[in-house]
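hey can u check if this looks right to u? its 121 residues, i copy pasted from the old doc so theres a chance i mangled smth
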Amino acid sequence: MPKILLVEDNEMNRDMLSRRLARRGHEVVTADNGAQALTAAEKEKFDLVLMDLRLPDISGWEVTKQLRARSANQALKIIALTAHAMEGDRQAALDAGCDDYDTKPVDMVRLTEKIARLLSE
């Protein structure tokens, strides 16, 4: 069962997405800010991270950079998620170390395809 770290500060989005992912057979651990995400990644091994880019404490871009700086996370797959897509966000997410990018509201079919593709690499 793939283990996903869902980093999302909006409680409603976090709950909805974690339930939908669990129904699709994923084990989901949640974090509602960047500091929690970094702590979770130190304590547990994840197959994939869904990273909200706009977090209240540390930006998703910075959390991604910090995760990538750890040698244990080099193979970790990261998909950036954002509700406020601005021009350049996609490239900034990829430059920070994300493997893919998606927008909110989440299209579960599209997101599930991206997750499956990344986990099969």
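The longest helix spans residues 11-23.
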